[in-house]
Amino acid sequence: MALANIRIVMVETSHPGNIGAAARAMMNMGLSDLCLVRPKDFPSAKATARASGACGILRAAKVCDDITQAIADCQIVVGASARDRSVAWPALSPRALAEKFRPQIETQRIAVVFGREHSGLSNDELDLCQYLLRIPCNPKFSSLNVGAAVQVVAYEFYQAAMAQHDATGTAPPASDGWPANLAPGDAVPAGAAEIESFFSHLQQALFDIGFFHATKSGPSLMRRLRRLFHKARLEQKEIHMLRGILSQMQIRLELQHRREAE
Amino acid sequence: MALANIRIVMVETSHPGNIGAAARAMMNMGLSDLCLVRPKDFPSAKATARASGACGILRAAKVCDDITQAIADCQIVVGASARDRSVAWPALSPRALAEKFRPQIETQRIAVVFGREHSGLSNDELDLCQYLLRIPCNPKFSSLNVGAAVQVVAYEFYQAAMAQHDATGTAPPASDGWPANLAPGDAVPAGAAEIESFFSHLQQALFDIGFFHATKSGPSLMRRLRRLFHKARLEQKEIHMLRGILSQMQIRLELQHRREAE
Description:
Two copies of one chain form a homodimer.
Chain A: E1 6-11, H1 16-28, E2 33-37, H2 45-51, H3 55-60, E3 62-64, H4 67-71, E4 76-80, E5 91-92, H5 94-100, E6 110-114, H6 123-127, E7 131-133, H7 146-166, H8 192-208, H9 211-215, H10 218-231, H11 236-261
Parallel strand pairs in A: 1-2, 1-6, 2-3, 4-6, 4-7, 5-7
Helix pairs in contact in A: 1-2, 1-7, 5-7, 8-11
């Protein structure tokens, strides 16, 4: 299991100590790729102190202005969420997450995104994620410290990697029946940036045909469409096909507009 | 599983923040029994701050002069150790620990003992333990923060308790992360007939916008679209939404056709 392909993304972390704790937890569990989106206070002596011997991870950490930058080259994006959300997004426990994506992580990059200390991730940020990560815990006190949450997730990835290492057989199949390992060039999973471009295109096309006017529910409609296409775990070729359809529809409308104008 | 029968014992903890972090981790995972042996600085505002909402555990924590007092009423005693010991003590991972003692903990009390930040437990202290606890981790950086170690152990006990609960209860978790049991009217999977009607509608709409002419690959295109939407395991509401979009597109084209004809 390629632990190097696991990226921990921390969004607007307030306390630099939590960044240090996350770095230490990552290094304890063989992870190395840390990305910080608009950290409040970084670099910071407090982060370095809490990182203990894991300063290398802090030094190598990427700092981004935007979450979309942080996940752009990741095929799998998972967002940590302690709260129940109105939209039924698929939720995985850390153990299920590590088990499910064990085969994929050999060749794909996964981002696990952690939100702010007090408010977590926004709905817009969770929209970028294909799965929610829910750490099973006491329902009466369900908010883990963000560094502790990173510890639990990193721990589960390391356990899964060890289990795979110990096993002598071949890679287990994906749990949902879809082929886990696909031949290169055959079915390449789309990256987060490609998927976001598709959603922008889709939104524009729906606007062009007047669908947002017809439904008066643009944001929640887009959220439901995002959920639908995230479920399908789009491949690059599928994105091309879908965008081809959208373009053709737009061309047809445009042609008719022009004919009308003539 | 009686999580109340699990005692976390912290020996000569230097940093009160780690005591607070441990209390929070415990409460997150349904544990409540904390015992501190000669803490360097306790009670402490730093401990309270890091405990977040788990101050109740700090207030109820017992403070002892000696580790033997702390474990006196426990039937099972396990000592955390990152280092290899010269004596070959039986070592358990947190997961194996939680699994192994799940039946006993219904009626017996277990102490999990964590040592000093820099030097762990002494050999004399480990002699009091029936088992070593070893958290599997990066051999090149194997020293977890003590609060993080408590988090991992408490997490494993909680997972074991939940697994037991599920075994006796009803709803099994969905294998692929998608909710298995959904409230009626919330997310009802579409039936095959509905899905086929959607594909017919999609095919007609693609014909209407001239996409089949543009690509000259109708059958294989439809196959790829079928595959894509099957992956998403469409729900009834999603079918309605998608067909709403197709209808709106057709209406818009039709309107323009009519305007052209006038």
